[in-house]
Structure formats: structure tokens, C-alpha cells
Amino acid sequence: FITILILLIILVGIFWQISSFISLYGGIQYVDSRSDVLRQAFKFAELKKGEKLFELGSGWGNGLIIASKEFGAQATGIEISPFNYLLSKWRTRNNPNIRIIYGDFRQIDLSSANVIYCYLCPKLMQQLLPQFKKQLRKGSRVVSYCFEIPGLSADSIQKIKGKKLSKKLFLYKF
Q1: Half-sphere exposure of 167 (CA within 13 A, CB side)
Q2: Residue 43: what are its φ and ψ, rounded to 5°?
Q3: How far apart are CA 115 and CA 174, in angstroms?
Q4: pLDDT of residue 7
Q5: pTM, rounded to two decimals
Q6: Cα gap 72→54, rounded to integer Å
């Protein structure tokens, strides 16, 4: 039994490492957004009940769960890491208001989103700008944690409340 358990732990570890490399190949390493930051970001974006939230790089699904349960949103996560995708699918399996898509968010149609949440590096944000301009409807909002979208002025900036006051949220209205 112990041999099987050790083997299972090793296989999960290998799968997690491969998933991490896939994320890096996609352009970013997985870093989780804190729950308090997610709540503040959704309030800042004025996420309303029934609106569609897309989280680009949804990780383990924390933001999707908060958006759905606390804000009443229809939440869609897009995740390129197989490990994070499967974990978030499992964590949200009983919530009909959450959908997880496995893939590269640069290849996904974002036109149905009312709000998009991003915690992505400036290089990826710059790559997404043409997609945002082409696909997002009038009135759609993008809220970015920590990083601005290069080449676009934020409509509003908010400091994060809490211990790390140097962090900011950037809100863009399309």
C-alpha cells in the first residue's frame, strides 16, 4: 500500500511539474490571487448579479467561486495548465454557474464577457489588447491586478486595501 501511495504522489508531482512548464510556455507562471484582492477587484469592476465574468488564467478557481457565490455572476475560467484546470473543474463541479475552459485565453472568444479579471504580466496584457478592442462590447470592463495594459490608459486606479499597499487594481472600460 505504501509503495502505491508513494508512486501516486510521485506521479501527481510529475503531472504538476509538466503543467507548470505548460503554463510557462503559455507565457506566465501560476501565481494565485488572494481572496480579499479578488473581492476588491470584483467590487471595483462593479460586477453585478447575472453578469458574465471571465478570469484569464483562472488557476484553482478561487475567483470563479467568489464571483459566482458572492456576486451572483456567471463565471468562466480559462486555464492552460492541465493540473490547475482539472483541480478547478473538481472544485467547481457542483456549481452550475461556473464553467472552466481548458486552453489559451488568447485563442478564446471573449465577446460575451461583461467583466474580465487578469493577473497577468505586461507582455501578455499587451498581446491581449487587440483582442479586447476587437471582441469586447461597449460597457465591458477589464480589471487587472498589479499590471497596467501597455498602450492603454486606465479609466480608474485603486490601491489594494491591506498589508501590501504598493499593489494596485487597474480598471479599463471598453
Answers
A1: 16
A2: -65, -45
A3: 10
A4: 80
A5: 0.84
A6: 13
Question: What does the alpha-carbon distance between residue 41 and residue 108 come to, in Å, rounded to a whole number?
Answer: 22
Enter the C-alpha cell of residue 119. Answer: 493577473
Q: How far is CA 99 from CA 6, 10, 50, 133, in A?
A: 33, 29, 14, 24
Concatenating the DSSP letter of every residue in 81-123 gives -HHHHHHHHHHTTT-TTEEEEES-GGGS--TT-SEEEE---HH
Which phi and psi (to 5°) does residue 128 adopt?
A: -80, -20
Q: Compute the Cα dihedral for 87, 93, 95, 96 and give only its sign.
A: positive
User: What three-state secondary structure class fits 56?
Assistant: strand
Flag residues of the chain having pLDDT under 50: none
Sheet holding 98-102, edge to edge: 98-102, 74-79, 52-56, 115-118, 141-145, 168-173, 156-159
The Cα 17–Cα 133 span in angstroms is 34
Decide if 43 contacts 66 (C-beta within 8 A): no
